[in-house]
Amino acid sequence: MKPSVGIVGTGIYLPKGRMSAKEIAERTNGVWTEQAIEEKLGIVEKIVPVDPVMDGSQEMGALAALDCLKNTGVDPKEIDVILCVTEEWKEYPLTTSALYVQDRIGAVNAWGIDVQNRCCTTVSALKMAKDMLIADDDVHTVMVVGGYRNLDFVDYTDKNMSMMYDLAAGGGAIILKKNYGKNELLGSHIIGDGSLSRTAGVEIGGICNPITKENVEEAKKSLRLLDPIKMKNRLNEVSMPNWYKCIEESLRKSNFSKEQFSQDGFLAILHMKRSGHVSLLQDLGLKPEQSIYLENYGHIGQIDQILSLHLALQSGQVKDGTIVCMLAAGIGYVWAANVVRWGA
C-alpha cells in the first residue's frame, strides 16, 4: 500500500507591531490615500517587527516551531528533517536557518536544509516534504518552518513598489508525518518562468552592486522592480492562467473536481490586492467565507498559507471533509498550489 502524508498541525508567531493604512499612505508622501490603501490594496493594517531579539527572521521561525510543537504535542526528538523556508534576509547572512531552528527546539535527531522559492517556498517545501517522506524509509516526521520580514527593504516613495506595500512580518510552521491517517497532503503543481528571474529583487548589496559608503542608506531600501515594464507585461499575460493551471492540476492529481472544491473547499491564499482576491473566489465559485482575506495581517511572504490554514482551523472554516487548496506566487517567477483533504 502506498504511503500517505498528513499534516499534524501548525504553529504561528506574529510580532506585536502594527502599521495602519494611514501610516502606509503617509509614507508614500501622499501618492496613495488611506482609503485607496484599504480599498484597492486591501490593507487595513499589517504586522511589523518591533522586538530586536524576537522579531528576527530566524527567531520568528523558531518561535513558530515551538508553537507548533505545543499545539501538536509532537516530541522534537521525533523530527527527522527540517525544511526551513526562512527568507535570505535574516539575522546573520550565510548562517543556516534550519539548523538554528533545530537547536532552538531541541530537534537533536533532525538534519535540516534551507530552501528558497520566495513567496512560493512553503507550498514548494510541502511537496518536497511529502516526496521525502514517501521515498525515504528513514524519514517519518518533517517540519516545514520559517520566518519572514522582507518589508524592511520597502521604499514606500517608489511608485513601482505599491504591489509590495503589504509586505509584513511573522513566522509559521507545519509538521507532517508519514501514514498519519488524516489531513492528507495530496497533489501539488508548480510552474516557473525564469524569464522573470531578475525583474524584481534587492538591487544593492550583492556581488553585482555591492554596498559602498556612498550607497549604504539607499541599499537599506532597495527592494525594487528591476525591470518593471517587462515584469508587469509578462505577469498580465501569464499570471492568472498559471494560477488556474496550478489549481486545476493539483485538484486533478488529488482526484477532486473543481465542482467538489467549490462546494467543500477552502482557499488558503497569500494576500493580494482586494479586487484580485474577490475575482479569484468568484472564478472558482467560492463564497467569501471559503477563504480568509489577510487585510489585518498583510503579506507575510511564504508564511501566508500557514497563517491562513491556522486561522481557518481556529474559526472552523476548515473542518473534517474540507478540501484545502494552498495557493502561492513568488517573484522569480513561480506559481504553486497544493491540495489537502482535511480530516480522516
TrEMBL record:
<protein>
    <submittedName>
        <fullName>3-oxoacyl-ACP synthase</fullName>
    </submittedName>
</protein>
<keyword id="KW-0808">Transferase</keyword>
<dbReference type="InterPro" id="IPR013747">
    <property type="entry name" value="ACP_syn_III_C"/>
</dbReference>
<feature type="domain" description="Beta-ketoacyl-[acyl-carrier-protein] synthase III N-terminal">
    <location>
        <begin position="113"/>
        <end position="194"/>
    </location>
</feature>
<keyword id="KW-0012">Acyltransferase</keyword>
<dbReference type="Pfam" id="PF08545">
    <property type="entry name" value="ACP_syn_III"/>
</dbReference>
<dbReference type="InterPro" id="IPR016039">
    <property type="entry name" value="Thiolase-like"/>
</dbReference>
<feature type="domain" description="Beta-ketoacyl-[acyl-carrier-protein] synthase III C-terminal">
    <location>
        <begin position="267"/>
        <end position="342"/>
    </location>
</feature>
<dbReference type="InterPro" id="IPR013751">
    <property type="entry name" value="ACP_syn_III_N"/>
</dbReference>
<dbReference type="Pfam" id="PF08541">
    <property type="entry name" value="ACP_syn_III_C"/>
</dbReference>
